[in-house]
Amino acid sequence: xxxxxxxxxxxxxxxxxxxxxxxxxxxxxxxxxxxxxxxxxxxxxxxxxxxxxxxxxxxxxxxxxxxxxxxxxxxxxxxxxxxxxxxxxxxxxxxxxxxxxxxxxxxxxxxxxxxxxxxxxxxxxxxxxxxxxxxxxxxxxxxxxxxxxxxxxxxxxxxxxxxxxxxxxxxxxx
Length: 174
Fold this sequence. Notes:
Layout: E1 8-9, E2 19-24, E3 48-53, E4 56-62, H1 69-91, H2 93-96, H3 101-121, E5 126-134, E6 138-144, E7 150-154, E8 161-165
Antiparallel strand pairs: 1-5, 2-6, 3-4, 4-5, 5-6, 7-8
Helix pairs in contact: 1-3
């Protein structure tokens, strides 16, 4: 199974227990971005890796204390990008840019399973993962571990911006 630390890799390839979510908006969503920050517990070592590719975005964080995890987040990002590019080549960018929430959820699930297999087969430690697909009026999220996804929203009445957390931390032991 997965490592007891809530990450991808560091074990045998098994079905992934992910936290999937759907965020619907009545307004068009026109951008996505990523940000990473090392915690104060290990601020000298940032094992984070991220990407934005079309409507997909991902953040990965190597799980400290497991050998090879400093490379795991980079390999996870590379594998996600490779899988997304393969989907774009197979189905066309137009199709990938217009997925339904169900289609996006299925593709994200396949991408996460591929990342897990790659990390396990290459004995690369473990990494958390958060992937998103931003549709025209929805965001599909999936996360393993404690890499989080937030939406930047605007209060219609005041114009003030605020963050809404879209994911819950995943712990495979609970």
